[in-house]
């Protein structure tokens, strides 16, 4: 636009050429700045993309690790329940058999009956676990709350 305006002014030809040259120089400088800005933006984009890719790999590994740990936990819980059932059966057998009461001292019988009562109470309360670790305060991120989005794993 400025170039057209300069041509329409009708001044001396040399002055018009100088003005046009200045306009071209200003436009060239603006293009150089824009090119540098574009180069910096492309470099920043490449860095961010590389960081995103690294984070996606870490996320995939973390998801796999959580899945492995959840499987281990389920197996351990199943084994614990199996062992608790076995122990409960043994305790019930010892408490019901007449020879069991005769062979055991009164103290042993009271300990077994208390233990059997505690195990029965634990079996009746499904969310209570009988273990050395108090798990009454469950994790804020229990395994049932975790959802897996496998669609991004293919990226």
Written description of the protein model:
It comes from Vidua macroura (Pin-tailed whydah). This protein has 155 residues and is mainly alpha-helical. The chain has a domain of 90 residues. It has 4 helices and no strands. The longest helix is centred in the middle third of the chain and has 84 residues. The two termini are 48 Å apart.
What would the average pLDDT be, to the nearest integer?
Answer: 76
Query: What's the total count of β strands?
Result: 0
What structural category characterises the helix and strand content? mainly alpha
Computed over alpha carbons, the radius of gyration is 39 Å
Q: Given the structure, what is the number of helices? A: 4
Distance between the termini: 48 Å
The ordered H/E elements are HHHH
Tell me which oligomeric state these chains represent: single chain
- Strand percentage, roughly? under 5%
**Uncertain ranges:** 128-143
Outline: rod-shaped
Main sheet specs: none
Give the proportion of residues in helices. over 70%
GO biological process, one term: mitotic cytokinesis
GO molecular function, one term: GTPase activator activity
Coiled coil: 38-97
Protein name: RGAP1 protein
Key features of this structure:
0% strand, single chain, rod-shaped, 4 helices, mainly alpha, 155 residues, coiled coil, RGAP1 protein
Brief account:
This protein has 155 residues and is mainly alpha-helical. The protein is 75% helix and 0% strand.
Which SSEs are present, and which pair or pack?
Blueprint: H1 2-9, H2 13-96, H3 98-103, H4 106-124
Helix pairs in contact: 1-2, 2-4
């Amino acid at each position: 636009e400025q170039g057209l305006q300069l041509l329409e002014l009708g001044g001396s030809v040399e002055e018009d050429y100088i003005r046009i040259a200045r306009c071209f120089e200003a436009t060239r400088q603006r293009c150089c700045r824009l090119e540098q800005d574009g180069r910096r933006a492309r470099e920043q984009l490449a860095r961010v993309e590389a960081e995103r890719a690294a984070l996606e790999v870490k996320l995939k590994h973390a998801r796999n690790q959580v899945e492995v740990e959840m499987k281990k936990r389920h197996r351990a819980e199943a084994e614990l329940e199996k062992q608790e059932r076995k122990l409960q059966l043994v305790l019930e057998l010892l408490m019901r058999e007449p020879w069991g009461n005769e062979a055991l001292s009164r103290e042993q019988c009271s300990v077994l009956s208390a233990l059997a009562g505690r195990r029965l109470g634990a079996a009746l309360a499904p969310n209570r676990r009988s273990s050395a670790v108090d798990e009454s305060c469950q994790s804020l991120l229990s395994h049932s709350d975790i959802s897996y989005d496998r669609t991004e794993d293919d990226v």
